[in-house]
Design goal:
Blueprint lengths: L5 E2 L4 E2 L2 E7 L9 H18 L2 E8 L3 E7 L6 H19 L18 E5 L4 H9 L6
Antiparallel strand pairs: 1-2, 3-5, 3-6, 4-5
Helix pairs in contact: 1-2
Length: 136
């Protein structure tokens, strides 16, 4: 576990997210060329905004999976806003033909899935807290 810790000025943490979001109307527009550009773009966005993308994959041409580590100052909503907003705009600029397969000029579905991924299970945390010494 200690090798996963990230040291900042005022804290030490290990905050990881598994995030999934999909193309509007589940259109299968994420071809190999679009996926390669999107992967590069997502890495650039992460570097610019201060988080790390460890894994990135497009699934079935209509959705994206990311495994991300972030500092506590970045909320998951901010991370998703950066990833979906910036990537959507830049993908439309680079591949204007995909706009024809979507309505209203939106690339990504408004919703997303996120799960926090930790190195310690809830059960272990509960056991640790319950067995703390009460002596002061």
């Amino acid at each position: 576990m200690k090798e996963n810790l990230i040291h900042y000025r005022t804290c030490v943490c290990n905050i990881n997210y598994h995030m999934v979001w999909s193309v509007k109307y589940r259109r299968k527009i994420l071809s190999a060329e679009v996926e390669a550009y999107l992967q590069k773009l997502v890495q650039e966005i992460a570097e610019d905004k201060g988080f790390t993308v460890h894994l990135f994959e497009c699934g079935e041409g209509d959705h994206v999976h990311c495994f991300v580590s972030a500092p506590p100052k970045l909320s998951i909503t901010a991370i998703m806003k950066y990833l979906k907003g910036i990537s959507g705009r830049k993908l439309f600029e680079r591949f204007p033909e995909i706009r024809n397969q979507l309505w209203k000029g939106e690339l990504w579905n408004h919703s997303y899935y996120v799960e926090m991924v930790g190195s310690v299970s809830e059960e272990n945390i509960r056991r640790y807290i319950e067995h703390q010494s009460k002596a002061y």
